[in-house]
Records
---
Amino acid sequence: MSKVEKYFSDLGLKAHILNALADLGYEKPSPIQSACIPHLLAGRDVLGMAQTGSGKTAAFSLPLLNNINPELAVPQMLVLAPTRELAVQVGDACTDFAKHIKGVNIVSLYGGQRYDLQLRALRYGPQVVVGTPGRLLDHLKRGTLNLSKLNGLVLDEADEMLRMGFIEDVENILSKIPAKHQTALFSATMPEVIRRITRRFMNNPYEVRIQSSIKNCPDISQCYWIVQGIRKNEALARFLEAEDFDAAIIFVRTKNATLEVAEALEKNGYNSAALNGDMNQNLREQTLDRFKNGRLDILIATDVAARGLDVDRISLVVNYDIPLDYESYVHRIGRTGRAGRAGRALLFVENRERRLLRNIERMTKLTIKEVKLPTAEILSSRRLAKFADKVQNQLESNDLNMYRALLAKLQPAAEELDMETLAAALLKMAQGERPLILPQVPNNKVPNNIKRRILRRNLIDRSRGSRR
DNA sequence: AAAAAAT
């Protein structure tokens, strides 16, 4: 393309879409948007690949919504997503984009939500359906959803939707839509094995791959820490204390671990909660809402939250358990550095997981910087600074007089004491269970005799494994 | 090898 598109109004979108964009404060399309929108408007299949946070949702939603016939009260556009929360988010985005198109209804259909709500929404004859595969198939079987007039199909997080476990459901849904339809596949990652499969689903697609560059790469500074000396949950508390963050998301490997880590953080006084696929859907949505609107600072999640979620408060991602594949890493850290903000990503690596770290570095073509555990000095000075802030706040409050009176009553009991000694005693009491002067971090070095013992144990384990 | 996705 020789012409460089500058504004949404240059892309061929109708006025009502442009008005919605203006309301939302969107001016200029991102590279993936300006590359894809004209082709999708023209009805062509598109395979869109661009890094996280680059505006893929709008890239497929805007042109497909633009081409909807509002007079026809049947599903014309369907978006499939790999998690329920993502289905909700994409549905909400479409509702925003379509708010000036008269007569267009949008519904999100996903598991765990009451049927009566979904059935009522379906009776309005929505032109746009966003959903997760299981519940969509359920509606198709019950005959409460009819996709026989569908024009546009989108697989959001396409590589995930075409993986084992999902692809069967996706193919099943595809068998219920007209053979002649437009397909859009979007993702930040596209492993070669899956890329080959995409050909089965597309007809002469226009392929867009937006390479990361200084200009369009999200600003995420990445580092790792080799687990050493102390347990991961203690290390997490230390890192969090040393870090300035708005909201943080901690990724763990298992659903159980979300609960364990959440509990440990709660004990440390953090405002945190777990998110995993075993929780009931109301609680899942409520937790995510609290996280979005700032009533929750830390979310501890499985990969249910790895893809697509757009929460611009997130300034820190911690990979508490290293992900087993590099795609998961890319999506996880992509939860930060959104909407032009900067983000930090910290990765915990156990010694035996170094291979996974090297793999991530090789695939992302990045060198991730090693960091050390925040020292006792750093933490002490931060605690002291926070404490000083609190004291300052008290000094500025105007209810201190009654405590002055109290001070006078305290004085006879400590007749020999000067005010400074008294202040020191009160300070000692006030610090409570979080000492303002921390003991030194335990020595990171593992003694040699212990090392030999670990080595021997590993060798025994391995020989046992090979005999089986 | 875990998690996700209908009940």
---
Amino acid sequence: MNLQKKLNQAGLRHTHARQVVMSILEEATIPLSPQSIYQRSLEKNEDIGLVSVYRTLELLDEFSLIRRVHGREDCHGYVLASPGHHHHLVCRECEKAVEFTGGDDLSGLLNRIQQETGFEVEGHLLQLFGLCPECQKGKENHA
Amino acid sequence: MNLQKKLNQAGLRHTHARQVVMSILEEATIPLSPQSIYQRSLEKNEDIGLVSVYRTLELLDEFSLIRRVHGREDCHGYVLASPGHHHHLVCRECEKAVEFTGGDDLSGLLNRIQQETGFEVEGHLLQLFGLCPECQKGKENHA
DNA sequence: TCCTTATTGAAAAATATTATCAATAAGGAA
DNA sequence: TTCCTTATTGATAATATTTTTCAATAAGGA
Ligand SMILES: [Mn+2]
Ligand SMILES: [Mn+2]
Ligand SMILES: [Zn+2]
Ligand SMILES: [Zn+2]
């Protein structure tokens, strides 16, 4: 379900600022911070306030239209998320983030940990880091 | 290997500020932000500067003596980390964080993703969320 | 005890996030 | 289309967080 629909459904308005933030996220291949989204809006000559970026991100997060992706050192940025359960794989070189589905690969692990710790496991955060195909090629050229 | 040793080995000094930050992390059961570490140092009447907290955390991180743990909404905090590869399980109620070892439960998943995406996977971030044994009991009482 | 210098922490600067509130525009009704 | 109502915006100010600077301090070897 797209933004327009979610907004109507929630009785909220389909505004310019919200469209701009959404479109920037749609065009992006790497996780973006509020600041960098704001920067890109300026470059696109789409004047929106930084405050609206924060507010829209909060909204999109509630709608599960975006997800936080954590960097290795830095903190997190936001990327568009397709519906359903999945995780992200991030390139350490170009920062590109792609989705992957977890399948039930974790169920074994989860059960084991639940037994061992007595915790009732409710959710998980999984991210992979590595080198994307393009950046692997880049490396070869330097050899 | 403990802090004292790591410091000597690196030709750095075993100072008061560093000891205080380390001891606060050793006493903690939940991930702590720089600010909260600073607060606790005040409560312990161990006057250290906030700047030293930041600097020490950076150092401890380089030494792999601590690790960042990400919250569900909030950002991350730091917890003591035992040597070797492992992950954290965090209680959604009391925020307590406990370690668990990943084993090779992920190797299947990692291989599959590597095949599917062409990425060369180098590392991962895995965290579990749930309810700790104590907080499960607390819930029952309310039933 | 003395010296050298890595380290500290107060203060300022730079960033990042949140709160306020009058002006605006989204979008339903007429 | 035009008119209303009000959710939303964004400039500004207020907070909070992180980094930089630099003279004073203390760690620890000689
Ligand atoms: Mn984070
Ligand atoms: Mn999963
Ligand atoms: Zn790449
Ligand atoms: Zn708990």
